[in-house]
Amino acid sequence: MSAISIIFTALFYLSLAVFLIGMARKIYQYTVTPAPLKIPTAPTPLTQTGVVMRMAREVVLFESLFKANKWTWLFGWLFHVGLLLVLIRHARYFWPGDLPEIFLLVQPFKYAAFAMVIGLIGLMGRRIFVERIRYISAPSDYLMLIMLLIIGISGAVMTFTSNHTDVIMVKEFASGLITFSWADLPTEVHFLVHLFLVFVLMAIFPISKLLHVPGIFFSPTRNQVDDARKKRHISPWALKQEQEHVVKLDEALGKDE
Amino acid sequence: MAAKEFDIPVLPTYLEIPEINEGVMEGDGPFKSSEQFQNPLGFPGEKVDNWQEVAIEKMGELKSKYRSVQVFLDSCVKCGACTDKCHYFLGSSDPKNMPVARQDLFRSVYRRHFTFAGKHFPKLVGAKELDDEMLDDWYNYFHQCSQCRRCSVFCPYGIDTAEISMAAREVLDAVGVGQKYCNQILGKAITIGNNLGLPEPALRDTLLDLEEEIEEETGIAVKYPLDVKGAEILLITPSADFFAEPHIDGLIGYGKVFHEDGVSWTMSSYASEGANFGMFIGSYDIMRKAALRIRKAALDLEVSRVMVGECGHAWRVAYSFWNTLTGVGAGATDEYALKLQNQLDSRYPQPQHIIEYTHDLIQRGKLKFDKSENDDRNVTFHDSCNVARATNMGGIPNGQFILPREVIKAVCNNYVDMERSTIKESTFCCGGGGGLLTDDLMEIRIKGAMPRMQALKEVEKTDGVNTLVAICAICKSQFSKVLPKFDFDPYMIVSAHQLVSEAIIMEKPQTDDSVTQEAEEVTE
Predict the structure, then answer these.
(1) Domains, chain A, ranges and CATH?
(2) Does residue B522 have a pLDDT over 50?
(3) What Å distances lie between residue B437 and B182, B442, B448, B461, CA to CA?
(4) Structural domain spans, chain B
(5) Which chain B residues touch A67 with a CB distance below 8 Å?
(6) Residues of chain B contacting A132 with CB distance shorter than 8 Å
(7) Class of domain B49-178
(8) Distance from the CA of A208 to the CA of which of A215, B31, B96, B216 falls in 20 to 30 A?
(9) Can you give the pLDDT at residue B471?
(10) Which tens digits make up the pLDDT trace of B501-512?
(11) Average pLDDT over residues B397-415
(12) Looking at beta carbons, which residues of chain A come within 8 Å of B337?
């Protein structure tokens, strides 16, 4: 194996490890941190089914964002859906051996790259030209978009222009990462940049605003059932506090019979 | 600082998003609390020497106790969806009044002290140190947030600036930089029982006067019972209802409805306050302490129902938090809450809103109205932020929007809604909520009222609206003050139960107080 292949192979496992461990830690943190009070925001679901529906609309359709701003919604949604479809299509590279027929269905997803790039350009445009959004943007907010743009554009260049890379080789490299039968990777610059930035993205996922991905599922204003009067909702720390202060409570409440 | 001169916003024909003007609302913030008000709440009397250390430690504690804080601090992608949603930004154009920028005052410190990127690359991710200047900004701008949660409706992750604002105020209190208005009031509420510091004899006198007044006017002896043991309903209402205009006309309305229903009810001199400013300063413990007085009153008076008067955040605390804090509600499994819940009548929602109660009586045909009594009024309804975005009524989806409107429409003929994007879950705050209802914050209160005033102006033009109904004591007080600044009649703001009071046909000439008397005998 070439030195560059060894480095990229190592980088893959490193960034994957950072991603998995970092996300596990974050998700664990979100799981153990209680939401001591009922704070769902209107329009609130009154049942658990309602919460599932609400969350589905948020995650799939970006419902709240749609209410807030149609342009941001349009570009944001295009980008996310584009990214998702493109990611699904990438499964072909990790699949060891011949592809099952189902992959034929996924083949047209390559055009989603355009949706992704258009979305990103739109979002970047808003960040630069809308005064309010410019005001709240930090360098990392621009960098994130630039990085995703480079990933998207370099990918599209490989797919749609004559700058193809050797996909057979890519597949051997990628599936080799999964099956631990490591192989060389193509060394065209745009491919290496594409791959490297994806690794970077994975590594910074748990330490950046990309945490909005798990965050939405843990957001108490979105994932709580509005049933405070029907069910007593109490956090472990509050219950403990209540129990440990029993004596004090008796003083405050008068003696219970 | 309160006397700073400023321009009252001109009402635009359409609500426009202003260009940002940095620093317009910079300042020292509201009057600071002193030792006298801080200490009884367990806060240091003045800014402590090692305040940075204390503050960072407190931030760490809060983010481990509240998932909202932790998740909201991490999740914001700066998409800008919230930037044009805050009434204080729309009215003042200060960019730090954009919800995300307000949160970023807190988030930038979080990043600096609690995240890898912020510790090692602060410039890159906009992480900042908590220095004197930042703390001043916190104090100023977190007291320009009414915790109305409008931003949270539009955020793709549901990030609620109210949660961040409460956390920031908690940190401020922990380092000894508290707000005078809230903390002074809380001191009264948890020692005397109401925000006004009205002791039992004064309260009793006020209620007796009210009874006389109503009897003189209507010839009917509507009673306002206080501390009646064994009554069925305990009414918890904001103390503003006891004396201030237009609030008291709402209280008159409640009394008339109870009278017509013939139910026995009482108020408590020990827990004579519905408002709970503990929520505004973000303190779970103090909010609970205030709420415990209501629990004790319910137990002592042996009531079977707890009802809440017209008050926005009181209803949020009651509806969403009481069951958690004190066990007023249902479905408890722990011994502590079960005790109370066994006493309460499970056929009724506990606690119940006075609007739910009146609405139910109307539905069952128990109340008769002469709607023409309100024919001089063209009415619109202001959804109070806490009721609209943080509670429910009637146990049906969006009941908090439906029930008040149905009650109003049952008692008056001319009703019209304001522009859809300014009501219901998208309602604009009155501008005075969240502990901002103090004269030293008049500038932000007036500017923050602009979006609501603009929507009101529109229906005034199109439908001749001359009456604004609200079911929140803060809204009523705030509107009384700011309406004239925008060329409205300050008396156009009324309680929903004032309209009920004016239209209700009193069919019971004498108080049916046999139940009450019986109850009193039991006490003796």
Answers:
(1) 3-253 (1.20.950.20)
(2) no
(3) 9, 8, 12, 28
(4) 49-178, 187-503
(5) 153-154
(6) 17, 20, 80, 83-84, 95, 98
(7) mainly alpha
(8) B96
(9) 97
(10) 999 999 865 544
(11) 98
(12) 232
